[in-house]
Design goal:
Shape: elongated
Distance between the termini: 19 Å
Number of helices: 7
Strand content: 15-25%
Number of strands: 6
Largest sheet: 3 strands, antiparallel
Order of helices and strands: HEEEHEEEHHHHH
Length: 284
Amino acid sequence: MKSLVVALWVLTLFCCASRVEAQTLPFSPQATAVPVDNSSKGLFTRAIVELNGVRLFSVAARADLRGAEVSAVNRALLVEQALHQLIAVAPNGTPVYDATTLHVTAHHDGDIVTIEATDAHHPVPLPIVTVTSTDAKDQLLPPDAIATLWQETLQNELVRELLELDPAVEKAHITHVAVIAVTLTVGTALLLVLLNALQRRSRTLADELFEGEELREGDSMRNYDTALRRARSVHHLRMHSSASGVLVWLTVLAWFIAAAWSLAQFSQTMALSLQLSHGITAIG
């Protein structure tokens, strides 16, 4: 129990440390992993575009690539790299792009629709993703409709990410995490005291039960009072055992929930939070 509490405590504090370390980096990490979903759909293949563990949309490619065509996985990685440029952090700890002036637009050039991003400090558009005819065929939607959906999704998610990177917001999150960690630590310490008290009481009841057994066996009349005390001792032992188990389970669950919530407050640990949340759901 004690070792598990220590492990969960370290996990909860990890999110604070990761945010402090992230502020010392000039840029946010680039996308390096293949997107989770790379499913085949008839003539096309799909790959999910993610940003810090949040799924945004899927891009498609022909199953039989021709010439210089890019695979769905490589398309998703290129989009994720552009997104990480938009949420990069400068050496002074502030985001490179401004959440209040960030504007995601769809640029039409003939039949090609490119989704771009600008802000007050970056008037030159940064291309994010191009809606291709393959995307339109795969999703059975016109390119303009797909561009509108992707534009709205990217606008909302990028603004949310940039707001989370604000130093004041990060400081508030770290404070909340620290308060929760300290509260859980104090609560766990009190629980250990309570469990020790229950354990001592259980030992006392076990001794009484043993004594009761000896008296009952030595008394041919099977003394009624001894039998009654034995029944009460057995009942109390079961209650103490059940209460201890429930308290331990609830405490571990509270630590897991707190750790998942704490990790979800920061972009760099969002994916880990989702994995931990899935684990909590599986346990439940």
